[in-house]
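Hi V.,

You were right to ask for the full record rather than a summary. Here it is.
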Amino acid sequence: MRKIYMTFAAALFAAASFAQPLARNHQANGQITSPLRYQAQSVPQSWQKTDFLLPNFGKARPMLAPNLQVTDDMQMIVDQPEGTLYHNYYGVNSGFEVFFGTVISTTVDGVAQDFVIADDGTMYIKNIMATLGSNVWVKGQKTGDDVYTFTFPQKYYKQPVYDENNEETSEFEDFYLFRMKINDAGNSFIPDTESQDIRFVFRNDSLIRLDDNSDGVVLALATAEGEWVGFADFASEWHKEKAPIEAPSASATVSDYMITYGNDENDRDAALVKVALEGDGFYISNLSGSNPDAWAKGKVDGDKVVFDGMKYLGVDPVLGYHTYFAPSGKQKVTWEDYDYTFDSIYFNKDIVFAYDRTANTLKSETNFLVNAGKNVVYKVNEYEKPMLTPWKEEAGTPKDPSVFEFMPYESEYGYGCMQIHVNKESTDGKLLNPNKLFYNIYFDDALFTFYPDEYAALVDEITDVPIDFTDNNDIVKKGTNRKIYYFLQGMTTVGVQEIYKDGDKTYKSNLVSYKVDERGNLTGISRDITTGSEEVKSVSYTDLAGRRISKPAHGIFLKTVKYADGSQKTVKYVR
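Predicted structure:
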């Protein structure tokens, strides 16, 4: 179902946080229709709205020409083929994708690309469509000097089939790549009946697509009947990134620092980084989270440390993008289509820190990014007005979190949503190690479990959520705020608590609990840690026929919570 955003939605929409293209499937809604149950969750700042429309998929589907028809024996190539691997080439791609129910034009810059050339001249390209990666290899053949020809259609993407209740089934439907051209109306794409070949040239450590938008050709995703579903690449090229990765020597002394950042003094976030000083080189690592060994190098100049722009940080192993240290600024921009003004980010030449040699601190009044790619603003992390301070770990009790925005479960959409504020400081005002900090969610005083079938980024079910975890979809991190979607209803209280785990010792904040009235509004607050008669002893589920269920699947169930004093509470539970 489409997510309904609350008052903070516009800010997240404008400054969309980074997400892998296939973080989770969603049904496309809005001005267009599509059988593809995925639309982009975030895009680079360079995107532009288009007037492209999709076919009416409710009508009878056309019959493709014989040379365009797909066959049942078409296979997806999911394992890396044998041959010479060309690893982590830098991609510069342009195309169309579906974003917030609209077809947009976008640039996908900096994606780490793999391709293989076999001994017989066969070439395989992984994720050949940058606007919609699928981890599938597409096959082509060498047809000339350094030229490789890929003949379509080829099977590229699959998704679960949904039943009449909008629930996943065990069946799958396939989608195919076609060579396409613009239709006569100029508002969509149709398969090219004259040719289904697209050529690439591999020369001088660069792989470049020859048949592109200059010829009116796009590589597009479509149904088996050849109907476009909103995703297409019209230009692609990949080059070997030759920028060096700078790092201190193995003999350099590395120190723990904390970096605090944020434009609002009341909502500054904090993280742990590593710092090394070697000669006049000042190095900082662990700025991107998922690539902790990447170092950004600055130069000490008296009472300043200067970091130049576009320092290469290497390929982020989780995101699959080439990343860069990028000094940045902001300016007000208005999207006329949405009548919305926001802070647009741009790259700066450098960032200058004031350097206090006595306190060993650095402070800047400007900003920097860890950016995916070097040509388009697509932030992985943003550090506004950063300050770096030496840090020493001290265990302690976390400050209390809070719930400050709440949307009750809506059956129309199939979820509810809330936004919580978390703290990374102890009650003594010390920064806690974020790697040891977690939060819990409570509904009706029962600890909530996050299941992988509801939260697709999870592998195992969890109750303790790492403080900085985000899937950019159902659990979204923005500064010290967390937006959390949930899929049950009927609760009368909502609570949140933070936990700091230091070896065998656990420190807990107060369990901050709110009452939910009959309209779904939060009406009261309690700051007592759950003990005594409110201690939860067991949680069980039954279906509407009264049968015991070990783990609820999709549907409506009754959730019974039993407490230490013998009392119990039963609420409706919807998944």
